[in-house]
Amino acid sequence: MAETNVFKPKGDAKSEATTKTARAIIDSDAAARIAKTARLRAARLAREPVEEVPKKAKRKAAGK
Protein backbone atom coordinates (compact mmCIF):
# COMPACT_ATOMS: atom_id res chain seq x y z
CA MET A 1 0.00 0.00 0.00
CA ALA A 2 1.39 3.39 -0.98
CA GLU A 3 1.80 5.81 1.88
CA THR A 4 0.25 9.23 1.38
CA ASN A 5 0.79 12.39 3.35
CA VAL A 6 -2.88 13.07 3.96
CA PHE A 7 -2.48 13.36 7.70
CA LYS A 8 0.53 15.31 8.87
CA PRO A 9 1.29 15.94 12.50
CA LYS A 10 0.57 19.52 13.52
CA GLY A 11 4.21 20.07 14.51
CA ASP A 12 5.33 19.49 10.94
CA ALA A 13 3.00 22.18 9.60
CA LYS A 14 4.35 24.71 12.10
CA SER A 15 7.97 23.82 11.39
CA GLU A 16 7.38 24.02 7.65
CA ALA A 17 5.79 27.46 8.03
CA THR A 18 8.72 28.60 10.17
CA THR A 19 11.23 27.22 7.69
CA LYS A 20 9.45 28.86 4.77
CA THR A 21 9.37 32.23 6.55
CA ALA A 22 13.01 31.98 7.59
CA ARG A 23 14.11 31.10 4.06
CA ALA A 24 12.15 34.03 2.66
CA ILE A 25 13.89 36.40 5.09
CA ILE A 26 17.32 34.93 4.33
CA ASP A 27 16.72 35.14 0.58
CA SER A 28 15.58 38.77 0.79
CA ASP A 29 18.62 39.69 2.90
CA ALA A 30 20.94 37.97 0.42
CA ALA A 31 19.31 39.76 -2.52
CA ALA A 32 19.66 43.12 -0.73
CA ARG A 33 23.33 42.40 0.06
CA ILE A 34 24.08 41.47 -3.56
CA ALA A 35 22.31 44.59 -4.84
CA LYS A 36 24.22 46.81 -2.40
CA THR A 37 27.54 45.24 -3.36
CA ALA A 38 26.83 45.78 -7.06
CA ARG A 39 25.80 49.40 -6.44
CA LEU A 40 28.91 50.16 -4.39
CA ARG A 41 31.18 48.43 -6.91
CA ALA A 42 29.68 50.47 -9.77
CA ALA A 43 30.12 53.69 -7.79
CA ARG A 44 33.73 52.83 -6.98
CA LEU A 45 34.55 52.02 -10.61
CA ALA A 46 32.81 55.18 -11.87
CA ARG A 47 34.85 57.35 -9.55
CA GLU A 48 37.97 58.92 -11.00
CA PRO A 49 41.19 57.52 -9.60
CA VAL A 50 42.58 59.72 -6.84
CA GLU A 51 46.31 60.18 -6.50
CA GLU A 52 47.62 59.20 -3.12
CA VAL A 53 49.07 61.96 -0.98
CA PRO A 54 52.69 61.14 -0.16
CA LYS A 55 53.16 60.34 3.50
CA LYS A 56 55.62 62.33 5.54
CA ALA A 57 58.68 60.46 6.73
CA LYS A 58 58.62 59.67 10.42
CA ARG A 59 61.13 61.52 12.51
CA LYS A 60 63.23 59.66 15.00
CA ALA A 61 62.74 60.81 18.57
CA ALA A 62 65.60 62.99 19.75
CA GLY A 63 67.61 61.51 22.60
CA LYS A 64 66.24 58.00 22.25
What does this structure look like?
With 64 residues, the chain is mainly α. The protein contains one helix and no strands. It has one helix at residues 10-46. The longest helix has 37 residues, at 10-46. The model has no long low-confidence stretch (mean pLDDT 83).
How would you summarize this macromolecular structure in one to three sentences?
The protein has one helix at residues 10-46. The chain is mostly helical and 64 residues long.
Write the layout of secondary structure elements.
Elements: H1 10-46
What descriptors fit this protein?
58% helix, 64 residues, mainly alpha, single chain
N-end to C-end Cα span:
91 Å
The secondary-structure class comes to mainly alpha
Q: What's the overall geometry? A: elongated
The averaged pLDDT comes out at 83
Q: What series of H and E elements makes up the topology?
A: H
User: Main β-sheet, in a few words?
Assistant: none
Regions with little confidence, pLDDT below 50 for 5+ residues: none
The fraction of residues assigned to DSSP E strands is under 5%
* Radius of gyration, whole Å: 29 Å
- In total, how many beta strands? 0
Helix content: 55-70%
- Number of helices, where a helix is a run of at least 4 consecutive DSSP H or I residues: 1
Organism: Mesorhizobium australafricanum
Region (Disordered): 1-20, 45-64
Biased composition (Basic and acidic residues): 45-55
Protein name: Transcriptional regulator
